[in-house]
């Protein structure tokens, strides 16, 4: 049996607060409805549009998946997120895409936690 695949592109308007995510189907039409998975090992690919390539995907927020049926892979440049849904159990899984500025990493100064044994 051939793999069932869904391909989406994503634009993120970071000029809005909070940022607005627009997801486009393979025909370039905006979509916001749920995706009904009917085949095991369905592959769902999200790729950032050129207008959002200053961002990169990081680990998505997943809830409602008690058996951990969803797995994900990120491309090396963070532009593509690939989700694999291992089964078709009846459940409503919430998947939130998470992006961050592509080349920026913020690290706080060391707050210095000093452990001292009680005297």
Overall description:
- It is a single chain.
- With 119 residues, this protein is mainly β.
- The chain has one domain (5-101): Cupredoxins -  blue copper proteins (Immunoglobulin-like, Sandwich).
- 0% of the residues lie in helices and 43% in strands.
- The protein contains no helices and 8 strands.
- It has strands spanning 5-13, 20-24, 30-31, 42-48, 55-63, 70-74, 80-85, 94-101.
- β2 and β3 form a beta hairpin.
- It starts with a strand and ends in an 18-residue tail after the last strand.
Number of strands: 8
Rg computed from alpha carbons, rounded to a whole number of angstroms: 18 Å
Give the name of the CATH architecture: Sandwich
Give the overall shape, derived from the CA principal axes. Answer: extended
Topology of helices and strands:
Elements: E1 5-13, E2 20-24, E3 30-31, E4 42-48, E5 55-63, E6 70-74, E7 80-85, E8 94-101
Parallel strand pairs: 1-4
Antiparallel strand pairs: 1-2, 2-3, 4-7, 5-8, 6-7
